[in-house]
Design goal:
By secondary structure, this protein is an alpha/beta fold. The protein has four domains: 121 residues, BRCT domain (Rossmann fold, 3-Layer(aba) Sandwich); 86 residues, Orthogonal Bundle (DNA polymerase, domain 1); 52 residues, Orthogonal Bundle (DNA polymerase, domain 1), CATH 1.10.150.20; 212 residues, Beta Polymerase, domain 2 (2-Layer Sandwich). Helix 3 links the parallel strand 3 and strand 4. Helix 6 runs antiparallel to helix 7 and helix 16 crosses helix 18. Bound molecules: uridine 5'-triphosphate (UTP) and manganese (II) ion. The site of manganese (II) ion (MN) has 6 residues, from helix 17.
Length: 491
């Protein structure tokens, strides 16, 4: 017993210290000796490890990047296939130029087509599926979802865990849904899903049931569960979060009329407006309506400062046809001007008689207090959450109204944020979403790059400095990520 412990301890220590030096955990390199030669291979291995890269001595399932000096697919690929690895199609097979570029930059550079050594046989027969990353910010996810059958089920499970405050399983199902959304076609068998990241046992069991029976009994049970239904109903009200919904449910309340009739419940201003405009703001906002709202705000802004700029962000910037609100960023060219801009816009909307609700949060952003290590999800820029009255006459394609509704207006939820101009790129990236895309950008920055990213800034913990950016592309470049267009961020 003692002897065993003594022998196993040093081995444990070695692996721990090696893991500490490893910087890029999603990259595990294997260098092919053929043509490279043993001594050069050993030199390159040392070099890469000294820069924090993981280099595997053997070609195994865990390798993600196979690097070869031999550019001939006809000799490299038969050798790779002879290795009989199960997940060969998931590996990047790369020219040495990817490796030297990565050494030069001190981080794995994004894989480009010129780096790839493609199997000439599979290229003509069927293109090898590209490796699916565990990070949403390394996947391209357009609005079309080929796996809705699974992702809708996962969303119910995630929401149910959220209501029970079980963050772990909730995130796991959201991550799994996000992976499936990025696929170019529907998953038709469990086999097809076996090499995908982020799919755990529970997830796979749900998928198997859906594949076999067309539905998941666990999901159906949740959907028919009274508590789930009530919490879902309550949280659909603007201003009511899971905590409040839970509190009302615990008090035995089951419907809106019960909540509204309960004398001991004091609704805040946001919740009152939420109930008042419930029918309108729980109905989706169309792209044409979002454009009309943009025009209204733009007119107000221009009357205040002609050089201000308004940018539509959120789901509509990602190409969605419908959304739950309209997200807009306003920036002024003149430094400091952003401080009062929103208040003036709000005044203008009030004068026009179209402001139905407004919660204004003044800026708590303070550059003199940077670097702040408390990188939070919410931002400190001046912002406001509004409900606006939108006239049908302002909408090109007419209002997206409920059936039988003869009013010529509807209420629309609008979010406005006003960052200083030099922080615009971070705000744009943060507010474009999707939420899962943002979550993974931050996780990727922290775990793979030792950087902190939020809606204000990007901080490099190694260099102990902030990295500036004027465009979203600058931020992707700092993170060593291939640029993902807004319409590819529907993770
Ligand atoms: P939304 O909740 O509006 O999501 O937030 P969405 O993608 O536009 O979806 P729909 O179409 O309206 O339903 C948009 C982005 O803004 C960020 C969120 O994290 C999300 O990525 N956001 C929102 C903030 O960063 N801060 C806020 O205060 C609000
Ligand atoms: Mn939105």
């Amino acid at each position: 017993m003692l002897g065993l412990r003594k022998r196993s301890k040093p081995a444990g220590e070695v692996s721990v210290s090696r893991r500490e030096e490893t910087k890029f955990r999603d990259v595990r390199i294997f260098l092919v000796e053929r043509k490279m030669g043993r001594s050069r291979r050993s030199f390159l291995t040392q070099l890469a490890r000294s820069k924090g890269f993981t280099v595997e001595d053997f070609l195994s399932e865990t390798v993600t990047h196979v690097v070869s000096e031999d550019r001939q697919p006809s000799s490299l690929w038969p050798w790779l296939k002879a290795s009989s690895l199960r997940n060969l199609s998931m590996k990047q097979v790369l020219d040495i130029s990817w490796f030297t570029d990565s050494m030069r930059d001190g981080r794995p550079v994004p894989v480009e087509t010129r780096h790839l050594i493609q199997d000439s046989w599979t290229e003509v027969s069927s293109p090898a599926p590209a490796m699916v990353s565990q990070y949403a910010c390394k996947r391209r996810t357009e609005t079309e979802n080929h796996n809705k059958m699974f992702t809708d089920a996962f969303e119910v499970l995630a929401e149910n865990y959220e209501f029970s405050e079980m963050e772990g399983p909730c995130l796991a199902f959201r991550r799994a849904a996000s992976v499936l959304k990025s696929l170019p076609s529907a998953v038709e068998s469990l086999r097809a899903a076996q090499d995908l990241p982020c799919l755990g046992e529970h997830t796979k069991a749900v998928m198997e049931e859906i594949l076999r029976c067309g539905r998941s009994f666990e999901v159906e049970k949740i959907l028919s569960d009274e508590r789930f239904q009530t919490l879902k109903l309550f949280t659909s009200v603007f201003g009511v979060g899971p905590k409040t919904a839970e509190k009302w449910h615990r008090r035995g309340l089951r419907s809106f009329s019960e909540v509204l009739a309960e004398p001991s419940i004091h609704l805040n201003r946001m919740q009152q407006s939420g109930f008042l405009h419930y029918g309108d703001i729980s109905r989706a906002v169309s792209k044409a309506e979002a454009r009309a709202v943009g025009n209204i705000i733009d007119e107000a802004v221009r009357a205040i400062t002609p050089d201000a700029m308004l940018t539509l962000t959120g789901g509509f910037r990602r190409g969605k046809e419908f959304g739950h609100d309209v997200d807009l960023i306003v920036t002024a060219a003149e430094p400091g001007r952003e401080q009062n801009l929103l208040s003036e816009i709000i005044d203008s909307l009030k004068k026009q008689g179209i402001l139905l609700f407004c919660e204004y949060q003044a800026s708590t952003f303070d550059t003199t207090k940077l670097p702040s290590h408390r990188f939070e999800a919410m931002d400190h820029f001046a912002k406001c959450f509004l409900i606006l009255r939108l006239e049908g006459s302002r909408v090109d394609e007419g209002l997206h109204s409920a059936e039988g509704d003869s009013r010529n207006w509807r209420a629309v939820r609008v979010d406005l944020v006003s960052p200083p101009a030099d922080h615009f790129a971070f705000t744009l990236l943060g507010w474009t979403g999707s939420r899962q895309f943002e979550r993974d950008l931050r996780r990727f920055a922290r775990l793979e790059r030792r950087m902190l990213l939020d809606n204000h800034a990007l901080f490099d913990k190694t260099k102990k400095e902030f990295l500036t950016a004027t465009t979203e592309k600058d931020i992707f470049d700092h993170l060593g990520l291939e640029y993902i267009e807004p319409w590819q961020r529907n993770a």
